[in-house]
Amino acid sequence: MSGKAQGSSIVEDPGIPLVGKGGSMNGSSYGSSVGEQPKTYKYENVGARLARRKELFVRRKLIADLSLFFAMLGIVLMIVETELCMANVFNKGQPGSIIVKSLISITTAILLGFITWYHYLDIKVFMIDNSIDDWRLAITMSRGFHLALELLVCAVHPIPGQHEVQMLVYDDTKRVRLLQVIPIDVIFSLPMFLRFYLVCRVMMLHSRLYQDASSQSLGALNRIHFNFRFIFKSLMNLYPEYVLTVMALFLFIWASWAVRACEMYHGQEHRNFLNSMWMTAITFLTVGYGDIVPASYCGRGIAVLTGLFGTGVTALVVAVLARKLELSRAEKYVHNFVIDIELDKQVKHAAANILKEGWLSYKYKKAGNTGKTLKHQRRLLHSIHRIRDLRGDQKRLADSSVSLTEMHRNQAFMMTSLTTVQSRSREMESRLARIEDKLDRLLQQSRA
């Protein structure tokens, strides 16, 4: 054995690299000697998987942002082309309209590519989360249906060129149905607004709850899925006024423009955007004066949807106002405390009246005054009923002020306090026992 310590020939590799510092376990060795052939592993280790998952999350969020950008760009181009045609700047067959609708087709094709890419990254994330290698295991009927539905919704857009279709409309008397020729772009333009579902996806991916790893872990333990429904509920709980305002404004503006686009070729009253906004407002608020009505089935369908959305938003507004007008926990405690003091005073006053009226009725009964005796006996009965009612009010107040959650919290606090007192009493007993032992030793030493 030499005097100098030689290095060990065993190289230890934990097989869990730092996140982002390398992915594959291929080439790593577990306790292999120098010069031996390193062992190869089929699967990546935990650190590499976490690094790849984080990278895929970032790329997926970027792809979702780009999808939303091209979706909104297509909608803006569609609105611009429709408004220019309504203003007679050019018609559907002129080069200006064809160029703008060709740009819409290009943005739609790019959007479809990004949507397919997003689902590809989503499948990769699913494979990492479930530790699977074969991508076919991640393809389910539900995932395929969602992908096909998204591609179908986002593929609808106005076709370049001048194409027309006949639609049934009513005349000015609202009794005779007529066939009128309208551009087919009206049918293909309105479904483009369904692309706004991408806003929900982007909101979910950019949400702090979705990006936080601790929130994801807590949700997994409680079997909570961090989807848009959960994010929307949290936003409604935190900022109900802003969410409802944005929803109502978006639905109002969309419905007004959609009614104008449907009714543009059936009369002059809807060429003014303010008239369409007026009809949408009275339909949204379920008033319905009837001074402006849609003539086409397209406009009537938009009116029906507007009424349904208005009813839902109104119900949400009522629920939010009811929750805002509800007393908070601290305000409820103060209110119940004040009411309890007032009820206690009234109970004491009613008890004093019972004694007073009982004494006066006895007094006048002994004196033979029947009229005053009956008068004070009625007051005595009234005081007895009054104190019973006050006792009932106090009981109901106590039941409403103490909930099951508060009872459980108070019970837990009492149990904690009792445990603390018991531990301190045992500690005190041990100290007293040690003091007695010391006193006994001192007595023995003094006697010796």
Describe the protein's architecture and organization.
Among the domains are: 239-326, Orthogonal Bundle (Helix Hairpins); 344-402, Helix Hairpins; 414-448. The protein has a two-stranded antiparallel ribbon with strand order 1-2. Strands 3-4 form a two-stranded antiparallel ribbon. It is mainly alpha-helical. It starts with 9 loop residues before the first strand and ends with a helix. The chain contains 14 helices and four strands.
Biggest sheet, spatial arrangement of strands: 1-2
N- to C-terminal distance: 64 Å
The overall average pLDDT, rounded, is: 81
Number of strands: 4
Portion in strands = under 5%
The CATH architecture of the domain at 239-326: Orthogonal Bundle
Major sheet summary line: 2 strands, antiparallel
- Give helix and strand order, one letter per element, not per position: EEHHHEEHHHHHHHHHHH
Per CATH, what is the topology of the domain at 239-326?
Helix Hairpins
Structural class: mainly alpha
What's the CATH C level of the domain at 239-326? Mainly Alpha
User: Over all CA atoms, what is the radius of gyration?
Assistant: 39 Å
Shape: flat
Helix content: 55-70%
Number of helices: 14
Low-confidence stretches: 1-43
What key attributes describe this structure?
single chain, mainly alpha, Helix Hairpins, two-stranded antiparallel ribbon, 4% strand, disordered N terminus, calmodulin binding, ion transport, membrane, CaM-bd_dom_sf, CaMBD domain-containing protein
Topology:
Layout: E1 10-11, E2 32-33, H1 46-86, H2 95-130, H3 141-155, E3 164-170, E4 177-183, H4 185-189, H5 197-205, H6 208-211, H7 213-221, H8 228-238, H9 240-263, H10 273-284, H11 297-325, H12 329-367, H13 370-401, H14 404-447
Antiparallel strand pairs: 1-2, 3-4
Main location: membrane
Domain Calmodulin-binding: 340-410
Protein name: CaMBD domain-containing protein
